Amino acid sequence: MSNVVVITTSLRAKSNSDILAECLIAGAKDAGHNVEHISLKGKNIRFCIGCFYCHETHECALKDDALWIAAKIKNAETVVFVTPIYYYEMSGQMKTLLDRTNPLYLSDYKFRNVYMLSTATDDRECTPERAVNGLQGWLDCFEKAKLSGSLFCGGISGANEAAGKDAEKNKAYEFGRSLL
Ligand SMILES: Cc1cc2nc3c(=O)[nH]c(=O)nc-3n(C[C@H](O)[C@H](O)[C@H](O)COP(=O)(O)O)c2cc1C
Fold this sequence. Notes:
This protein is α/β, with parallel strands linked by helices. About 35% of the residues lie in helices and about 20% in strands. The chain has helices spanning about 15-30, 55, 65-75, 90-100, 130-140, 165-175; strands at about 5-10, 35-40, 80-85, 115-120, 145-155. A 5-stranded parallel beta sheet has the order 2-1-3-4-5, with helices on both faces. It is globular, with a radius of gyration of 16 Å. It starts with a strand and ends with a helix.
C-alpha cells in the first residue's frame, strides 16, 4: 500500500481528465492505496521567478498554494499528474506547478513512482509524447524517482464527454489498480 497523491490540472468544469482521474482513484483505492486528490481548480500558483532563493533556503520565496501542494508531492510515495493535452504538451498549469517544485530538488523527497494520465481530442498514439517527455525532463532532475507509467485517453474533446466513454473509464480504473 502506498500513499498516492493525484494532481488534476484541468481548470475546466466537467473536465474529461477529472472524470478519468476519478476512475483512476477508484482503482487505486480498490488496490488498497491511500489516495489524496488535489485539483488545481481555484488554486493560486504563480510562475516561478527563477530567483534561486530555494537553492539557499530549500523554501520558495513565493507564498501561495504551490507551497503546500509541493509539500504533498514531497511526502507522497506515488504521484500521478493528470493533464489535458494543450498544443501537444502538458497543460501550462501543470508545467507551472512542476517549476514551483524546485525547492524539493535538494530535499529528502519521498516520491519514487510517478505517473501521467492525459486526454486530448486527437486519438493518435503520438499525441501525448511531448507531455510525457516534459514530465520525464522533470524526473531527470529527481533521480530517486522514475516514470512508472502513463495512460493516454484520446478522442475526447467536449466537456463531460469522458462520462460516456466506458472503455476509457475502465482503462483509467485499471491504471489506478496497477499503481505501485
Ligand atoms: C488551449 C487548448 C489547447 C489544446 N490543444 C490540443 C492539442 O494540441 N491536441 C488535441 O488533440 N487536443 C487539444 N485540446 C483539446 C483538449 O485536450 C481536450 O478538449 C481535452 O478533452 C480537455 O481535457 P479536460 O476536459 O480535462 O480539460 C486543447 C484544448 C485547449 C483548451
